[in-house]
Each structure stands twice: as structure tokens, then as C-alpha cells.
Write a structure and sequence with these properties.
By secondary structure, the chain is of the alpha+beta class. The protein is 34% helix and 11% strand.
């Protein structure tokens, strides 16, 4: 399901990840009060070393990990609200006590797919 376009995909994925990282850093440093990054590809399904469903880099996971490892934030809350489960986010932070992921997604009694 993940389609790679040699002309645009790599650049778009890097710009999306970099934009989320820059916004999160500016908020953590107090340069911005809040921020909202509406980027494509979204990233929440990308797992370590594997692109999934159009997600190449897990943008929010990269930003959250950066904020906690650089001591810009002690804790991070991620609210992932989408039609599909953000399995990449769950996998990235399942055992991390510094990041809480709340995943809200469509279920439809298991018949969504």
C-alpha cells in the first residue's frame, strides 16, 4: 500500500518530518505558544525501519523522541486521532514511560476493512 514516487516522495517525507520537529522544538523552547502541523505524509503508521500505508517517517515519534532525549521536555503526550490505528506510534513508545500515546481510531466492529 505504500507507493514511492522517485521524483517527490523522499523530499515530501523529509519536509514533513522536519516541519513537525521544528514546530515541536519551538513550542518546547517557548518560542511558540502552540502549533499544529498539517503535513503529508502523516507518519503515524511508519514503524522502525519500515514504511507503511503511505507513512515513510513517523514524524511525531521523531519529534517526541528528540524532545525527551534533548531534555526539552520531560514528558510528551501524543493524541493520535485518525480513521486507522497508529501502530507505529504504539510500537515506538509502548515501553517508554516519558511518552503517553492515546490512539483514537475507527473500529466498526472489526468490519472497517
Amino acid at each position: 500500500q505504500t507507493i514511492w514516487n522517485d521524483l517527490c516522495s523522499a523530499q515530501a517525507a523529509r519536509i514533513a518530518a522536519g516541519s513537525v520537529l521544528e514546530l515541536a522544538t519551538k513550542v518546547a523552547m517557548g518560542e511558540l505558544k502552540n502549533a499544529f502541523a498539517l503535513v503529508r505524509p502523516p507518519g503515524h503508521m511508519a514503524e522502525r525501519g519500515e514504511a507503511k500505508n503511505g507513512c515513510y517517517f513517523n514524524n511525531v515519534a521523531i519529534a517526541a523522541k528528540y524532545l525527551t532525549t534533548q531534555k526539552l521536555s520531560n514528558r510528551v503526550l501524543i493524541v493520535d486521532w485518525d480513521l486507522e490505528h497508529g501502530n507505529g506510534l504504539q510500537q515506538a513508545f509502548y515501553n517508554d514511560p516519558n511518552v503517553l500515546v492515546i490512539n483514537i481510531h475507527r473500529y466498526d466492529n472489526g468490519t472497517f476493512y
